[in-house]
Amino acid sequence: MTLVRVRKSGCLTLLLLACTACVGRSVQLFETLPQDGDRRGDAGAVTGDGVATPPWGSYLQGVTLPACATGASLVVTTAAEEQDGGTSAADPTQAGPTLSLWEALTIAYNRPGYDVITFDSSVFPPSQRTVISVSGALPFALQTEAYCLSGAGAGVALVWDASLDIECWTCVFSVPAGSLVVGLELVNLPSTLDVNAAQVAGCSFSNIRYVACECGANALIGPENMFSGSGTGVRNSFYAGLVVRGNYFGFDPRTSTNRALSQAVVLFSPALVEQNTFGGEITYAVSSTTQGTEPTVLRNNRWGVAPDGSILGSAGPHLRAYGNPSRWVIGPGNIIAHSTAAGIVLFPGSSDFVEITANSIYDNMGAGIEAGDTTFLPPAPVITTVTATDVSGTCADSGRVELFADRGDEGELYLGSVECTAGLWSLVGEVPAGFNATATLTDGQGRTSVFSGPVAAP
User: Fold this and answer.
1) What is the DSSP string of 80-112?
2) Tell me, what's the pLDDT at 324?
3) pTM of the predicted structure, to 2 decimals
4) How far apart are the first and last CA of the chain?
């Protein structure tokens, strides 16, 4: 494969500112992918580029997932939508010869204590995809006590009827404080998984129609969730403490390919977003109208580059930070690359503060950091001298200068930082041959400039 470096253009689009009904079970050898131009042949699902997609349960066999706490066991043994014993059942003996997910949820609701709902792997083998159809409201969708719902070690796909109304709240189970939902495939979600001080991990959310995970205080989303569809992956509504860690947004880790997604993460309160991969077909990766003094922190994420290093496509990291006030810390350790526009575009207001620190920003067709309004940003530092041993320059405002090396005018390699005082700065370090030195300045209020002009290494 030949990698062609594309000349930058002036365009800017990136802003910084988600079976049928069965009596027994329905099995597929490969996962049905209901979007992105996928097609299903006799053997199962095949992606638009001809790559066969293994079942989600099979993929999870090689992934480390959180385990359920100790609790009363409920093992689902049928994919049927049955509810023997009615809505008052409080013990598995009331469910008849088999136990459905509906019956397990009913029992978990009616009896006190922590319940662990798992799936019989002989009925739901991980190497295959067994569908549980959801055609309407679930019994006791609003769970009130902590529980664990685990498809780990099995191949379970919950598929909601596409005709269900969006925002059918009773069609999706809630995830109350202390709960864990893990190892499931969830397709055509009509509403949201309400996650409150609980964890969702190892789940595939495909064909999202509204919001996959609506998060309350102290929710943990991840690791190893995958999100795709025309809706939003994760959203918090004015609750603090959300952590979004180790997920795949608009990216399929099984095939290392992009999946379309409208919005990845939408924030109304500060959150920590780290170690995630954002694919190349996301309309907006992270958007926020956060309030207060605590920042939203984005660190060690990937935009435009897969975990195996392959390029994911041309769409850039559409990060939106707006509101009054809004505080962001972007870094350290993010990779922001291969955008058809700029890497990051800043539109801060008088009380918006966006700190960009110690990232790898490169190979974007527009600028690495583009200022939509420079009025509230500090001026970029000026590099005056690049020698074999150090780099020095000047600054109009005092602050922290970060030095980078890049083949163009962005910041691929982070080399270190130094304070600029009295208008001068100097940093000991070597810029690799064939690279240019570039720099940013972050002032005392936490606002980062665009990149300086590049100066070639000697």
Assistant:
1) S---TTGGG--SGGGG-SS--HHHHHHHHHHS-
2) 56
3) 0.88
4) 31
